[in-house]
Amino acid sequence: MALTENQAKILAALAGEPDRKLTAWQLGQRTGLTAPAIRDELHGPLYDGFVTGSPYGPGRWQITAEGRALLRTRPYRENLPPHDTTMRQGDR
After folding, report:
1. Nearest Cα to 9, choosing from 90, 83, 89, 63?
2. pTM as predicted
3. What's the alpha-carbon Rg for the chain, to the nearest Å?
4. Which of 3, 9, 44, 91 could lock 31 by a disulfide, CB 3.0 to 4.6 Å apart?
């Protein structure tokens, strides 16, 4: 499954804070994308299983184990947060 560049950025931002649920505004601060663009990307079918959350109200999203595993694959490793060594350990 291929992610768009924006989807990879969003997943990486969520991976940077795996224990928190982030709003579209917070994700925008981390990715440089607009909140509407983030909402559009998060509502897409590619995100089934990679994030959890609710699109209603302020909407808060969190990365899943499947999303973290996807980011560990070769095409997306460069998107991983630099401080997240736990996610990179299995890929050396």
Report:
1. 63
2. 0.77
3. 12
4. 9
